[in-house]
């Protein structure tokens, strides 16, 4: 097998190979839409010392120079380390058992070999080769490189994702026990999270202990005056006051005289600070070590555990050093000290202390932090993007946001985003009376509560009667045009995967991800828990969010996008650091929120919970001209959207069209006012009645053969999301002419709007 990388050291030779490297490299270039020599595919390599020589397929690589990357996510790499000198033991120095267990040392062949697959961990990686020479000397050689993403630009997109997450949920990006790390810089103000403290202490541990030992061996002291009482023959220096006392008590040989004696003391401000710092660091280290051992027993390897025990023992030895017995308690930084800033040993302890008490900023810096894997980061970022898009479309800063989402400190010492109701973000508007009216809500990872016969989700009154279902993001739009508080539910799943690229250059989501959305829609049901009311499907549509590329016009012709209009299942490309990436998703959300009326949405979906609440069945629509008539006041009633209107037509005669009207087949009624439409009513009742049996003015003469069609209209719903009147083409309803027309669907009716 050809070696991709070859590192020649005076003690060993390292070979790195990968069977699928060329295919992976081409795929990364295709996914990022860059040339194969693009900066997006570059990495730099660093190693200890200047005696090693690195080559890539025979080409020499300078230390720190940017060259095409070898390492990518979710790819298997084989490592072969052949030692030139006799070694008795060798391993990969890492706290991760899943990495160390992948290597084996053959002492007879003097070879350390193994494999690493970085999975979804991207960032900087340090391969530390630890080996012990036959003479007993133990060496550690560190080789650092970038592990790049295949589907995103690691150098720019990852920074964008982290910045967006940090802006919403500080510290949520951080993780522990990962195979890669990310650089960060410290800030002098702010909190010091446990994981930050731990990572910083790992870097300064040795120099901190060394500096404390220097101070203990050669501490700063000061001259202090102690008050003592001595007999006259023990006095070494007489002051005028003592001379007067000697004369006064010269007959008393046993009299004790008060005087002051200068001595050297280590009980100084600086030593008190040192005592406090050492004790605090020891207690903090022991506390975090116990949490790591309790929560990562299967991830930690034996050498890592031994190293923690050695560090704990060393810190405890310093805390209980006899030197500190004569040093008092530290009472705070209430004074400046040049010794702390410049003194040998003291200055190092002070600098390390400031570092351990700082906050952090996930920008380029000299420190290292481990992050969550890119799939998890992408999922959280998609939730933030959907939430922000919904807020923007609802009115931006004008909308009232009740952000109930929060982070939870998990059993380790990193944070995770709360799920279900704890992650809910509710958007509302405030009425003129000061009341809040809910418009929408976004939920992250709705939780399930297992029951005997069903699994309840965080979506109100929604259950899975088979197995638990866990969509990533839930969007619920609250409507009041068909029923107060009626909610339309849509699901989104963030998938950090790309299935393939079609002939038009459009990335395609994985098939199993699309199939998952079908399963979600079929598995989640609305159950009102009221006797006599059947369960109905809850989910209207399901959509995949994936880091795909492609021009909007090409994506619109792709099957995964066109299927949204046909079956309400599909996908949207969504990439960070790309302003146009969210355009299609934003346009779709805009149509849901503002352009598509509830009636049209529900009419396009069959067997949904809304069919029993709002539209009894999909049926024909009758649009009728309504004139401004003071006698029956229909005009004002329709303008004011009264909930119930008893409407009757003109007199039926053999010569007019009303006699031919099959009024029983209509389910919906649309009033046309001045050539414009706004509302659609359900026809609750329809019959033929004599005019004299209908309301009329007292004394009005009514013919016995005057027969009318009567309709009871109920539950008005807006046809247009903007809730405004929209004009129809004048050819349908000419001005000042009464008439009616039949339509088979809301979509057909709206196709005649201007």
TrEMBL record:
It comes from the Bacteria. Residues 113-353 form the DUF2357 domain. It holds the Pfam family DUF2357. InterPro entries: DUF2357, PDDEXK_7. This is DUF2357 domain-containing protein. The lineage of its organism: Bacteria, Pseudomonadati, Bacteroidota, Bacteroidia, Bacteroidales.
């Amino acid at each position: 097998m050809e070696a991709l990388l070859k590192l020649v050291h005076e003690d060993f030779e390292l070979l790195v190979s990968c069977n699928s490297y060329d295919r992976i490299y081409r795929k990364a270039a295709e996914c990022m839409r860059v040339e194969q020599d693009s900066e997006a595919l570059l990495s730099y390599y660093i190693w200890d010392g200047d005696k090693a020589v690195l080559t890539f397929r025979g080409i020499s690589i300078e230390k720190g120079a940017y060259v095409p990357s070898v390492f990518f996510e979710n790819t298997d790499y084989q490592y072969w380390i052949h030692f030139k000198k006799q070694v008795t033991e060798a391993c990969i120095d890492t706290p991760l058992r899943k990495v160390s267990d992948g290597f084996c040392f053959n002492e007879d062949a003097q070879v350390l070999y193994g494999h690493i697959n970085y999975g979804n961990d991207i960032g900087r990686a340090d391969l530390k080769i630890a080996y012990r020479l036959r003479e007993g000397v133990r060496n550690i050689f560190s080789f650092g490189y970038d592990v790049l993403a295949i589907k995103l630009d690691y150098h720019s997109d990852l920074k964008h994702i982290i910045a967006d997450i940090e802006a919403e949920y500080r510290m949520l990006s951080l993780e522990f026990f990962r195979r890669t790390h990310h650089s960060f810089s410290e800030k002098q103000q702010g909190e010091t999270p446990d994981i930050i403290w731990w990572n910083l202490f790992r870097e300064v541990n040795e120099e901190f202990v060394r500096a404390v030992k220097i101070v203990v061996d050669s501490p700063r002291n000061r001259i202090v005056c102690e008050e003592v009482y001595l007999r006259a023959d023990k006095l070494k220096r007489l002051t005028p006051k003592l001379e007067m006392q000697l004369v006064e008590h010269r007959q008393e040989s046993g009299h004790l005289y008060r005087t002051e004696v200068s001595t050297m003391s280590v009980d100084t401000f600086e030593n008190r600070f040192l005592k406090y710092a050492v004790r605090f660091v020891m207690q903090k280290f022991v506390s975090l070590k116990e949490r790591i051992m309790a929560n990562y027993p299967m991830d930690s390897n034996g050498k890592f555990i031994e190293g923690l025990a050695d560090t704990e023992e060393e810190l405890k030895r310093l805390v209980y050093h006899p030197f500190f017995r004569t040093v008092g308690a530290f009472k705070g930084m209430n004074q400046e000290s040049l010794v702390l800033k410049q003194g040998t040993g003291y200055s190092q302890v002070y600098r390390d202390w400031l570092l351990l008490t700082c906050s952090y900023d996930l920008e380029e810096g000299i420190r290292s932090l481990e992050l969550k894997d890119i799939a998890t980061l992408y999922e959280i970022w998609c939730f933030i993007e959907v939430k922000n898009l919904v807020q923007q479309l609802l009115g931006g800063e004008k909308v009232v946001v009740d952000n109930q989402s929060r982070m939870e400190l998990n059993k380790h010492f990193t944070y995770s985003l709360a799920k279900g109701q704890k992650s809910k973000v509710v958007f509302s508007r405030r009425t003129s009376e000061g009341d809040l009216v809910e418009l929408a809500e976004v939920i992250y990872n709705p939780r399930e509560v297992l029951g005997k016969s069903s699994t309840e989700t965080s979506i109100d009154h929604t259950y899975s009667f088979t197995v638990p279902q866990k969509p990533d993001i839930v969007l619920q739009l609250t409507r009041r045009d068909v029923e107060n508080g009626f909610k339309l539910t849509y699901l989104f799943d963030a998938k950090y995967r790309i299935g393939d690229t079609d002939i038009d250059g459009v990335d395609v989501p994985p098939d199993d991800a699309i199939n998952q959305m079908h399963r979600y829609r079929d598995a989640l049901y609305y159950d009102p828990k009221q006797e006599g009311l059947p369960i109905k499907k809850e989910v209207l549509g399901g959509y995949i969010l994936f880091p795909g590329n492609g021009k909007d016009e090409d994506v619109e012709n792709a099957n995964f996008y066109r299927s949204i209009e046909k079956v309400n299942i599909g996908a949207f490309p969504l990439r960070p650091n790309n302003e146009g990436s969210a355009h299609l998703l934003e346009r779709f959300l805009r149509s849901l929120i503002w352009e598509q009326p509830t009636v049209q949405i529900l009419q396009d979906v069959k067997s949904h919970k809304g069919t029993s609440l709002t539209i009894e069945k999909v049926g024909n629509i009758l649009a009728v001209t309504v004139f401004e008539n003071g006698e029956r006041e229909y005009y004002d009633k329709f303008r004011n959207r009264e909930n119930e209107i008893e409407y009757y037509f003109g007199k039926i005669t053999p010569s007019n069209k009303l006699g031919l009207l099959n009024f029983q087949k209509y389910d919906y009624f649309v009033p046309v006012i001045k050539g414009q439409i706004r509302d659609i009513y359900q026809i609750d009742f329809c019959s033929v009645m004599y005019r004299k049996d209908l309301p009329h003015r007292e004394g009005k003469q009514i013919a016995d053969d005057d027969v009318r069609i009567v309709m009871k209209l109920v539950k008005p719903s807006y046809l247009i999301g903007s809730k405004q009147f929209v004009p129809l083409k004048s050819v349908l309803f000419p001005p000042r002419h009464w008439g009616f027309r039949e339509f088979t669907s809301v979509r057909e009716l709206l196709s005649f709007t201007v």
